[in-house]
Amino acid sequence: MYTVRSINKLIKEFSNLPGIGEKSAQRLAFFISRTSREYGSRLIEAIREVMQKVRYCSICGSPAETDPCPICQDKTRDKSIICVVEEPWDVFIFEKTGKFKGLYHILGGAISPTKGMSPQDINIGGLLRRINTHKTKEVILATDPNTDGQATALYIANLLKHRGIRVTRLGMGLPVGGDLEFADEDTLCHALNGRRAM
Prior knowledge:
Elements: H1 5-15, H2 22-34, H3 37-53, E1 55-56, E2 63-64, H4 70-73, E3 81-85, H5 88-97, E4 103-106, H6 124-133, E5 138-141, H7 147-160, E6 166-169, H8 185-193, E7 196-197
Parallel strand pairs: 3-4, 3-5, 5-6
Antiparallel strand pairs: 1-2, 6-7
Helix pairs in contact: 1-2, 5-8
């Protein structure tokens, strides 16, 4: 079978990316093989810059080029409200709405026995430390509305129920079994405004 070693190597690397299957990896590899050298150079430079400059905020876990991140440093944000999300890209989705003015906490996943993820595998300890050292009044549990996200939200709600903190969950508007990353801005705003106590 005729193959091109460098293209096969690129297909293999693309296949390791989340959400990219073999066919998508092939399309991307062949697209790159046909593009101009200028575009290829810009893509390589963008990847190199991310690898060199991006770190994760020691407070909330957000990707940023500074530590603490710009959101944690922003004095205009309401530091008494923490929105707990599963992954870094969830912060970008909330920020696109322009409606949430509190802080974030990224867990780095969800509790999932089937995937081998226990409470110790996600950043719940960091959340508890933040709550203990700051005047937190509300924790919004914005984990995905699927089984793992629900289990994670309930686990955290149980940990916080005797601390005198209002614990809420995003309201109607998000489909059960869905992921935040696929929610549009209007749906997310509606869910944020309709959050309820847990």
